[in-house]
Write a structure and sequence with these properties.
With 142 residues, this protein is α+β, with helices and mostly antiparallel strands. Helix content is 21%, strand content 44%. It is built from one helix and eight strands.
Length: 142
């Protein structure tokens, strides 16, 4: 009988302690992550001339996680945008930058474009917008 009660006590302790141990292990695994915080995920270029030069804007982000953050890929929604970023990991708490270059010679009118980033912290999207105006012809008076 004493053997049975010891066995029941041991089983009860295992049932109580095992989930606590697993929960602690899961928390430790979940905490080892990169995080990304965009300081301002959108930018308005305003009005641009169709015959004008390329315009650029620098987006800043911070790694809010506790392991290095890596930008793995940037995909744009048109060929009017070029994206430049460092392939080097950004340490926890450090700031990185992404430069977006827009070429107004590629299209006329209003635009609102997305830049989709794949990072070690997940996917995020930047946005640029503006309006490309046609080159005005000089009016001829008669």
């Amino acid at each position: 009988m004493k053997q049975l009660s010891k066995w029941l006590i041991l089983c009860a302790l295992l049932c109580v302690c095992a989930p606590l141990s697993l929960s602690a292990q899961e928390s430790a695994v979940q905490e080892q992550r990169a995080g990304i915080e965009l300081h301002n995920p959108s930018y308005d270029f305003g009005r641009l001339s169709f015959k004008g030069n390329k315009k650029s804007h620098v987006f800043y982000y911070t790694n809010t996680g506790n392991v290095p953050l890596i930008i793995q890929r940037a995909k744009t929604s048109c060929n009017c945008i070029d994206v430049k970023y460092s392939r080097r990991p950004v340490a926890p708490g450090e700031r990185g930058e992404i430069t977006v270059i827009y070429d107004p010679k590629k299209e006329l009118g209003a635009f609102n474009k997305g830049i989709h980033l794949t990072t070690s912290a997940g996917q995020v999207t930047l946005f640029v917008k503006g309006e490309v105006l046609p080159k005005h012809k000089k009016s001829h008076k008669r």
